[in-house]
């Protein structure tokens, strides 16, 4: 220190960057802590390490692709659900809407003996309409989306069973395996892809990653993304500065419907028949994925990547318990515990962010 | 300026903006919510380079008045003119398109969103395909705040982490940047400490000097008097005084605000209750301000 003072001019440029660099590193750490995904990422790493140790089969390539598949089927729905949650709303009908979408495609194609692709397109139109109904009901009545979608949840669950039984005399739709277009549709919605010699993954994993990428791009880079954060963070403020709040919210409900349609198509072309009673309860799993991934239940904060990590955690826990040869009855307990931890972490984040100086 | 506005307001030269024409003029405006009369027969003018203060106690109708100007509510009676043209706004967007920007009490900000996202919310700068020009927006938000004398460490910090005065300034800077010709400020100093309020008042003067018409809503005459050019005092939904600065002193304004008669009534009340010393003091004050009946 004394020598540097004596040497004078040569020293300061060297000494200068020292503290500056440290400041930059500090703010980088703070920025990381402010990211919604961080908690989920740490949790995912910890869980991965945990199951790698306790379950020998967990690290095998086959197991990993099973985990990814489980993660993708919930992750695709979590994309739409997380965007909706960032926009400040819930959709409790999301679980049965997947079954509805699948039934619409399978039943219309079978009953009218159409090419299955016609069923796929009709299902897309009708499922998007279901999402729009949810959105319009919410916008027009101003009731909490929790109540609105609880009502549509029960209505859809009843319709799924009632219509299927009326048309087929059975609780499941007739098989569409032998119908025109099944193979090409199966290739799009439910095929296996060879990644490496040993590793086969389901195509849903690729779709999942694509949807997450698109959702992240929308959220962070586009005007609509700005609006989604705003309507969730403070709808009144958003309206006051000219954001079309009603259109954004309806669009978000339709986004969930789109994901439900895609998941439904996967069901149809993976299994050829659709069980009309399926899907009940899954809406909570999607919400759990989004919340574990750092989305605030009250809206305005979160990320699609976080929800993807949440879905990955879900997939790891779901399959990891099996590979560890534990009683799978415990799965739900772990899920609930993780939800609790994630929510508490979120709460702390929000308090820290909202604290005004 | 006010005199000429009254006489020549009818037919301005087309193309040549008439300097004397007020930017905003309300004439006999009223608003009912069901059977509740929130506002009755209120008139007000706001011209470029002037600050028009709207004063009144809670429930006087200040909020209703600015909601009409801001486009959140339609007025029921009277006329609302912007640059001589009659209007009735259906949404805040329409008011914004006419150059009327409103800074609300709650500031219309989203606390969890970064400063720059808030700054451009609803008017995002785009590059095509719905893509936002993020680099431009971050730079501009930082630059505009610096121009108001606030050096943000990080435009990515959530706006909820700024101080109350700083948040006010973001909201005002935002309105000025987006080409507001008229700025409506809803109680910008209400929740602030003395120092922070001073900062905000300075920006009000700055906005006036940049040629904006400012409508400044407040219940504090001590904040209104130093910056205001005209004062509208509301009570129970009606105008009880509309004065240019030359016609009124700070004390008169304060007395009008408090309601001279009410002050006297309070004195009587206290008198009968026994605390005659305070009552005498109040009576004297009311008389001194020349606003009692005797």
Automatic annotation (TrEMBL), chain A:
What residue intervals traverse the membrane?
A: 38-55, 67-85, 92-110, 116-139, 146-163, 201-220, 227-246, 252-272, 284-314, 330-349
Q: For this UniProt entry, what's an example GO CC term?
A: plasma membrane
Where would one find coiled-coil regions in this protein? none
**Gene Ontology MF terms:** transmembrane transporter activity
Membrane-protein topology: Multi-pass membrane protein
Question: Which residue ranges are recorded for the region named Disordered?
Answer: 1-20
Determine if Cell inner membrane is one of this entry's keywords.
yes
Q: Enumerate the UniProt keywords alphabetically.
A: Cell inner membrane, Cell membrane, Membrane, Sugar transport, Transmembrane, Transmembrane helix, Transport
InterPro entries noted in UniProt: ABC_transp_permease (IPR001851)
In its UniProt entry, what is this protein called? Answer: Xylose transport system permease protein XylH
What is the organism field in this record? Answer: Actinomadura soli
From TrEMBL, chain B:
Query: ABC transporter domain: which residues?
Result: 24-261
Query: Which PROSITE patterns has this protein been placed in?
Result: ABC_TRANSPORTER_1, ABC_TRANSPORTER_2
Q: GO terms for molecular function, please?
A: ATP binding; ATP hydrolysis activity
Q: Which CDD domains match?
A: ABC_Carb_Monos_I (cd03216)
Q: Which UniProt keywords apply?
A: ATP-binding, Nucleotide-binding
For this protein, the record's InterPro entries field holds:
AAA+_ATPase, ABC_carbohydrate_import_ATPase, ABC_transporter-like_ATP-bd, ABC_transporter-like_CS, P-loop_NTPase
Residue ranges of coiled coil: none
Renumbered to this chain, the Basic and acidic residues biased-composition regions fall at 282-294
Q: Where is this region: Disordered?
A: 1-22, 274-294
What PANTHER family does the entry give?
CARBOHYDRATE TRANSPORT ATP-BINDING PROTEIN MG119-RELATED, SUGAR ABC TRANSPORTER ATP-BINDING PROTEIN
What is the recorded name of this protein?
Answer: Sugar ABC transporter ATP-binding protein
């Amino acid at each position: 220190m004394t020598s540097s003072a004596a040497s004078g001019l040569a020293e300061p440029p060297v000494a200068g960057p020292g503290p500056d660099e440290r400041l930059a590193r500090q703010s980088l750490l703070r920025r990381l802590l402010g990211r919604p995904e961080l908690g989920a990422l740490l949790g995912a790493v910890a869980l991965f390490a945990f199951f790698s140790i306790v379950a020998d089969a967990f690290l095998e390539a086959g197991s990993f692709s099973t985990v990814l598949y489980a993660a993708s089927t919930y992750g695709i729905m979590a994309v739409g659900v997380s965007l909706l949650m960032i926009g400040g709303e819930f959709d409790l009908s999301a679980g049965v809407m997947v079954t509805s979408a699948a039934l619409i495609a399978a039943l219309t194609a079978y009953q009218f003996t159409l090419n299955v692709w016609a069923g796929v397109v009709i299902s897309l139109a009708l499922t998007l309409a279901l999402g729009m109904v949810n959105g319009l009901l919410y916008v027009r009545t101003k009731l909490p989306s929790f109540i609105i979608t609880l009502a549509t949840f029960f209505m859809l669950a009843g319709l799924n069973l009632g219509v299927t039984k009326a048309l087929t005399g059975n609780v499941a739709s007739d098989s569409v395996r032998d119908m025109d277009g099944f193979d090409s549709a199966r290739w799009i919605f439910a095929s296996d892809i060879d990644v490496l010699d040993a590793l086969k993954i389901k195509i849903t994993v690729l779709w999942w990653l694509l949807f997450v990428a698109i959702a992240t791009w929308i959220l962070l880079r586009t005007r609509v993304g700005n609006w989604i954060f705003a309507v969730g963070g403070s709808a009144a403020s958003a309206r006051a500065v000219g954001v079309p709040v009603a259109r954004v919210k309806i669009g978000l409900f339709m986004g969930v419907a789109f994901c439900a349609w895609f998941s439904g198509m996967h069901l149809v072309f993976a299994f050829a028949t659709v069980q009309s009673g399926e899907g009940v309860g899954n809406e909570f799993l999607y919400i759990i994925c989004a919340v574990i991934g750092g989305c605030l239940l009250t809206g305005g904060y979160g990320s699609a990547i976080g929800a993807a990590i949440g879905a990955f955690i879900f997939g790891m826990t779901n399959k990891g318990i099996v590979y560890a040869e534990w009683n799978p009855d415990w799965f739900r307990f772990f899920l609930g515990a993780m939800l609790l931890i994630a929510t508490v972490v979120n709460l702390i984040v929000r308090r820290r962010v909202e604290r005004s100086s | 300026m006010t005199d000429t506005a009254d006489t020549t307001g009818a037919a301005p030269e087309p193309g040549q903006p008439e300097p004397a024409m007020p930017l905003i003029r309300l004439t006999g405006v009223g608003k009912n919510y069901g059977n509740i009369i929130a506002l009755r027969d209120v008139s007000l003018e706001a011209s470029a380079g002037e600050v028009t203060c709207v004063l009144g106690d809670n429930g006087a109708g200040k909020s209703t008045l600015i909601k009409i100007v801001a486009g959140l509510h339609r007025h029921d009676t009277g006329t609302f003119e912007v640059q001589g043209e009659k209007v009735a706004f259906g949404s805040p967007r329409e008011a914004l398109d006419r150059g009327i920007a409103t800074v609300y009490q709650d500031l219309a900000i989203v606390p969890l969103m970064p400063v720059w996202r808030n700054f451009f919310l609803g008017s995002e700068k785009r590059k095509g395909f719905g893509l936002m020009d993020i680099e431009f927006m971050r730079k501009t938000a930082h630059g505009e705040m610096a121009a108001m004398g606030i050096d943000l460490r990080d435009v990515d910090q959530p706006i909820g982490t700024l101080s109350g005065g700083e948040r006010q300034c973001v909201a005002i800077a935002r309105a000025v940047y987006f080409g507001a010709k008229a700025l409506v400020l809803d109680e910008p100093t209400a929740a602030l400490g003395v120092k922070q309020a001073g900062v905000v008042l300075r920006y009000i003067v700055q906005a006036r000097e940049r040629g904006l018409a400012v409508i400044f809503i407040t219940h504090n005459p001590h904040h209104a008097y130093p910056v205001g050019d005209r004062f509208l005092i509301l009570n129970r939904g009606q105008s009880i005084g509309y004065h240019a600065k030359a016609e009124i002193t700070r004390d008169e304004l304060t007395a009008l605000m408090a309601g001279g008669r009410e002050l006297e009534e309070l004195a009587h009340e206290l008198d009968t209750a026994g605390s005659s010393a305070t009552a005498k003091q109040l009576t004297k004050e009311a008389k001194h301000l020349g606003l009692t009946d005797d």
